[in-house]
Design brief:
The chain is an all-alpha fold. It has one domain. α1 runs antiparallel to α5 and α6 packs across α8.
């Protein structure tokens, strides 16, 4: 189980996140997010093949509705946004790899958590450590200097904000992710995780940014899809 979790972290976090950022560099955030939305259906298929987990037709429809809602929101163009990167097939390939590795990592985690006594917190630590090792190897392969990542050094008051973001956005988030993988169907869990871009909208509203009708409708569509998933369960 520990080995499966380590592979899951190396594949899903270390390799997967690296591929995702490579896709962003070549396609832009919107297109990269749109491609990685393939992760939930891939997860469902992998879980069916390797774990024997199956979903009802209603749950499948709920997943489809949720993904469509998210896709509708993230494909909306912002007038103030910088021009998107040019389309490249290499970027599409990296985005597809990111989705594939997310799905593979999720299924491996689900198997390890259900077939052993490893807790969600322990599994989160194992996955993060394995992912970190992969990132360090990637740095060595590309001959990058870690010191360059810290330039320019943030102001002192920013360090507290960064520490909070790292705590909640990385450690606590992955712990909660592992809890979801442990206690529910992994395809459903991955679909719920794919709704994370929608949570940017309430933050935008708090910052007094105007929300478009399309973004609001997209959120409502996704909520309807999530509701259908839970009703199907």
């Amino acid at each position: 189980a520990v080995l499966a979790l380590a592979v899951s972290g190396a594949v899903g976090i270390g390799f997967g996140d690296t591929m995702f950022f490579e896709a962003i560099n070549r396609l832009g955030a919107r297109r990269a997010l749109l491609i990685t939305i393939l992760a939930p259906p891939m997860t469902v298929i992998f879980a069916w093949i390797f774990l024997g987990e199956s979903l009802s037709l209603a749950a499948w429809i709920g997943i489809l509705i949720t993904i469509l809602g998210v896709a509708w929101v993230i494909t909306e163009k912002n007038k103030n946004e910088q021009v998107e990167n040019k389309f490249t097939w290499l970027g599409v390939f990296f985005g597809f790899l990111a989705a594939l590795t997310q799905a593979g990592g999720a299924v491996l985690s689900r198997w390890a958590l259900t077939e052993s006594s490893v807790s969600a917190l322990q599994s989160a630590l194992i996955r993060l450590l394995a992912g970190t090792v992969v990132l360090l190897l990637w740095i060595i392969i590309r001959r990058e200097k870690i010191g360059l990542w810290l330039k320019p050094v943030p102001k002192k008051q920013i360090w507290g904000v960064l520490a909070t973001v790292i705590l909640f956005g990385t450690y606590i988030a992955i712990w909660l992710q592992q809890l979801a993988f442990k206690f529910t169907n992994v395809g459903i869990a991955q679909t719920l995780l794919a709704t994370s871009p929608l949570f940017i909208l309430p933050v935008s509203a708090l910052q007094k940014e105007k929300l478009s009708l399309r973004s609001i409708l997209g959120v409502l569509i996704s909520i309807a899809g999530v509701a259908l998933i839970f009703l199907a369960g």
